[in-house]
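Mods, move this if it's the wrong board.
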Amino acid sequence: MILAYSLEHISALIFCILTGIVISFQAGLALGFPWGVAAMGGKFPGKWPPKMRLVAVINMLLLGCFIPLVLSRAGLLFSALYPIASPGIWFLVVFFALGTVMNSITPSKAERIWAPVAFFQFLTTLVIALS
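Not the wrong board. Structure tokens:
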């Protein structure tokens, strides 16, 4: 059996993988891993304080909500979300465009590793939005 995937489907899968990586990083911050230098401009190097760990959990939840939107808009899963996903994908395009800029100009050199991730999240959401 030959599987044929559209660029839209491939983009959605790449988005999910990248977002899963970011969610895993946020989970590490929430659990107290000493990765603070690579987030929030490096303002909290090392282990994040409790309030910032809550921010990491909120980030995880927000990013987790983006995945079904992308999968729905790409026509892979969650078809009931399509009425929301269709305009919502444009929010994600802007969100990840801004994320690319912010991760590129951060004072934390370690945090700049997230700029290419955000850029590819931007590209994948743009491909999905335009298809």
